[in-house]
Amino acid sequence: MKQLDPLFFPKSVALVGATPDPAKLGGIVLRNLLRLKGTVYSVNPKYGEVLGIPSFPSVTELPETVDLSVILRPAAEVPALLEAHRGKARFVLIVSAGFAEAGAPELQADIIRIGREGGLRLVGPNCLGLYNPRHRLDTMFLPHACLKRPKSGNVAVVSQSGAVMICLLDAIRMSNTGISKVVNYGNAVDLDAPEVYRYLADDGDTAVVVSYLESVGDGRAFLDAARFLSDRKPLLILKAGKGAGGGAAAFSHTGRLAGNYEVFHSLMNHYGLHEAADFDELLDGAKAVSYQRPAPGTRVCIITNGGGSGVLAADECTRRGLELPCLPEGVLRGLRASFPSFYTVANPIDLTGQVRVDDYREALFAVRDVCDGFLVIALTGVAGVTLRLADHLREFREQVGKPLVVHIAQGGVAPRLIRLVERAGIPVYPSPERAVRGLASLLVKGEPHG
Amino acid sequence: MKQLDPLFFPKSVALVGATPDPAKLGGIVLRNLLRLKGTVYSVNPKYGEVLGIPSFPSVTELPETVDLSVILRPAAEVPALLEAHRGKARFVLIVSAGFAEAGAPELQADIIRIGREGGLRLVGPNCLGLYNPRHRLDTMFLPHACLKRPKSGNVAVVSQSGAVMICLLDAIRMSNTGISKVVNYGNAVDLDAPEVYRYLADDGDTAVVVSYLESVGDGRAFLDAARFLSDRKPLLILKAGKGAGGGAAAFSHTGRLAGNYEVFHSLMNHYGLHEAADFDELLDGAKAVSYQRPAPGTRVCIITNGGGSGVLAADECTRRGLELPCLPEGVLRGLRASFPSFYTVANPIDLTGQVRVDDYREALFAVRDVCDGFLVIALTGVAGVTLRLADHLREFREQVGKPLVVHIAQGGVAPRLIRLVERAGIPVYPSPERAVRGLASLLVKGEPHG
Fold first, then answer.
1. Is A82 found in the same domain as A2?
2. Fewer beta carbons below 10 Å: N end or C end of chain A?
3. How far is A81 from chain B (nearest CA, A)?
4. Minimum-distance CB partner of A307 among B163, B312, B432
5. What sign for the dihedral angle of Cα A242, A245, A249, A252?
6. Per residue in A85-142, pLDDT tens?
7. The last residue of a domain, from among A126, A160, A178
């Protein structure tokens, strides 16, 4: 058994501060925890039973040593509660806020000391904790009516911030991808990103790791773990707290110094680690690598039915260091022979507003061997783009297997087409530039992953 | 009457290449044109009548000189057709492609000459033309089933590319804003951006102009017109064809050289003209200035219920040259007195996942006088964010009047809340960084517009 298995697959969970009241955090978390594939205990001296499970006055009374205990009580009560956990829990998740991030570093020092002396592993404080759909583990104090959970999938999320974590969860759900494991570790008094990275590196359910950071405790340990992970699967990191204002905000958020961003950034670069510039870029990259595996090479062909959209995509390719090679004379001749004279046969290939859907197929297969990645732009405002495009894209993807992303914009068959294309394992993006950002994370300059 | 009035408000329009067949471009455009507040004539020797309107064998037979004639016939036929227009039309819109952009510069030279000799103003070729909802003018060859038209509003679109124009139209519709006038001028053999900019500068229906360019014919004329316009109302420009690949793509797209982007960029900067980096940024800025008027000052206050989202927004403020001032001691003291100790009272103000909706109101009014613009972040995954937030935001906007934008993410009441907030004249964005980009276009370093 690996070290973090009891955290992600707990056989038994205690909730300190459980209540039957659905309007209170303790009532929300209890309802979410009751879905667990395992035993759940309530700890609350006010009740003998809560929502059909036994409730104990203190963790000391629990009938077993639980894998995970979740504390939902005010910060001032946490040290005494933690003392009581000695020998009764492996991991203790402290959801409560009000520690270093709120100007109470001594309270935080107390819980660190108690955890060490008691042999307790700590997660948090000031966090939402865990979500593992395969084990139906969910410690988030967010009602399902407010946050729909994403389905089971291959994306892991490691986030210092709870807010960014829930934004990522929702965005991943909307991307038609799914989640392997999620952890939000807040002030990180014990469990921190490096340990989770190493665990996920060997996790068979996880194909890609998306990580949001504001601060790094031990820089060396962080970089080593990040490299260990990213040698095995794609790791996308968004580091916030970059400027003066953001750095100060990051400090008040989790009580750790954001550090000098320039130093962080140059070390990331030096170690070949991939960094996203902002939330949308993190998401666009994550979507791509959750759909397809990265492959070597940087030569891109753009096939579009809108000239301007092709130009915007070409600009973004240049910014991302992707090439738009000239197509070989033989390929050009073949395409010119089959297409009307007003199509532009070059790279981008512009099939214009008068496109017929089979033109996309012809263009794709003509360039299959001369490029490493492909961007198809389909503006559905014109009548020639039909749902059959999804069949052509699926066929190309199955036969050729190289990275392929699609930008579909507005109107007509767009919603149905997007669904069909994504079901075929091809990610769709809402703007030309975002599609190129997705493609860029699938095209690696050195060796492929895996 | 201003020079471009017959173009945007034609009393009579002829369609050369009209057909009753709804599957052909001539059938689609005819259906869209028939909504016009004015007279429409078909020109097609095959018919005596099309869809209930008279059809003439040639423009020479038209019973009047039309304000606008639209040519939908293949490129090779256009010179002869254009000859026939002499004295029969003020403006001729050439939708057809197949000129300089398709390697036929001599055909393009022909139509330029014929237009000049015949005293005809030309739009295009290789374009979609015009959309003016107030006059129900619509020359686009896109069926309504494929592209829903945005409602009437205050945003003008001036686009060299038809594809980017239709993407903008759809995005503007989704932003709950509306359109004043749209023109897509393609290869720009006669009508070009500068003339349109000057017309829109004095257009009472237009509050903001969004412009997509790939090339600029006369650089001096362009910059003069852009300054003339942007002295009167916000002008947002996206210049594509930036890198080597994009520049080549832009050339094959409209047959004009993209020019050296660095030179363009530094001139734009020099003249204080606003340039968007990509499609999404163009859209985010346009949305903001279509909802609210820009105001002077760069001091921003962020009020959030998610710490990490606040940090990401703070980072983007730094990148955009916006300040996050420390709040005065009196303001801090007041907020600390009313809020729980685990809220972070600083800038950003972090109301945490335990926020109550009235806390937003309290925070906003506390900082009203110490900042120039405000970003409210509401993560609806937590139970405390209710629809009443829209009332608080409306009240603040009405009483204080300073720029205010909102980021709302995922779940629960989000869709209804977004609608209510936008109805109150406050733009909502899907990520912290995009919200800051919107706010940045409302905060001007020098004098305010208007």
1. yes
2. N
3. 19
4. B163
5. positive
6. 999 999 999 999 999 988 899 999 999 999 999 999 999 999 999 999 999 999 999 9
7. A126
pLDDT, residue B90, reads: 98
A257: pLDDT confidence band, cut at 50, 70 and 90? low
Q: Provide the shortest C-alpha distance from residue B98 to chain A (in Å).
A: 5
Which site among B29, B77, B140, B167 would you substitute to test the A interface, given the most A Cβ atoms closer than 10 Å to its Cβ? B167
Q: Are residues B148 and A411, on separate chains, in Cβ contact within 8 Å?
A: yes
Q: Are residues B56 and B154 in the same domain?
A: no
* Tokens encoding B177: 């804003």
Residues of A whose CB is below 8 A from B252? 307, 344, 346, 350
Band (pLDDT 50/70/90 cuts) for residue A342 is: confident
Question: No. of H helices and E strands in chain A?
Answer: 16, 21
Cis peptide, bond prior to residue B125, ω within 30 of zero: yes
Contact check, Cβ <8 Å, B317/A28: no
CA-CA distance, A117 to A380, in Å (whole number)?
63
Give the span between the Cα atoms of A432 and A167, in whole angstroms: 23
Strand stretches in B124-178, DSSP E? 129-132, 137-138, 152-159
Q: Is B402 helix (H, G, I), strand (E, B) or coil?
A: coil
Both B384 and B406 in one domain: the answer is yes
Which of B185, B239, B279 is most worth mutating to test chain A (most A CB atoms within 10 A of its CB)? B279
Residue in B with minimal Cα distance to A238: B312
Instruction: Quote the Cα angle for A348-A352-A353, to 5°.
Output: 145
Q: Find the closest chain A residue to B75 by CA distance.
A: A342
Q: Name the burial class of residue A63, with classes exposed (0-12), middle (13-18) and buried (19+) by CB atoms within 10 angstroms of its CB.
A: exposed
Interchain pair A101, B307: CB under 8 A: yes
Q: Are residues B110 and B159 in the same domain?
A: no
* B96, B201: one domain: no
Question: How close is the nearest chain B Cα to the Cα of A65, in Å?
Answer: 30
User: Is-contact B294 B444, C-beta < 8 A?
Assistant: yes
Mean pLDDT is lowest, of A103-112, A247-256, A312-321, B346-355, for A247-256
Q: Which residues contact A107 (CB under 8 A, 6 or more apart)?
A: A75, A76, A78, A79, A98, A99
Domain boundary (A91, A126, A161) is at A126
Q: Is residue B209 domain-shared with residue B257, that is, in the same domain?
A: yes
Q: Which positions in chain B touch A164 (Cβ < 8 Å)?
A: 306, 308-309, 312
Count structural domains, chain A. 3
Task: Kindly report the CATH number assigned to the domain that includes residue A317.
Answer: 3.40.50.261
DSSP A169: H
Strands (E), A62-101: 66-71, 89-94
* Residue A343 amino acid letter: Y
My answer on whether B272 and B157 are in the same domain is yes
User: pTM (2 decimals)?
Assistant: 0.90
Q: Are the Cβ atoms of B306 and A167 closer than 8 angstroms? A: yes
pLDDT tens digits, one per residue of B260-300:
888 888 888 888 888 999 999 999 999 999 999 999 999 99
Which residues of chain B make contact with A167, given a CB cutoff of 8 A?
Answer: 306, 309, 379, 409-410, 431
Residue B410 with chain A: CB contacts under 8 Å: 147, 166-167, 169-171
In a domain, A431, yes or no: yes
Angstrom CA distances, A79 to A76, A130, B94, B336, stand at 7, 22, 77, 25
CA-derived radius of gyration, chain A: 25
Nearest CB neighbour to B353, from listed A162, A316, A319: A162
Two tokens at B3?
Answer: 């020079």
Place of tokens 């040259």: B321
Model confidence pLDDT, tens digit, residues A360-369: 999 999 999 9
Same domain, A168 and A200: yes
**Pairwise CB contact (< 8 Å): A309 & B167:** yes
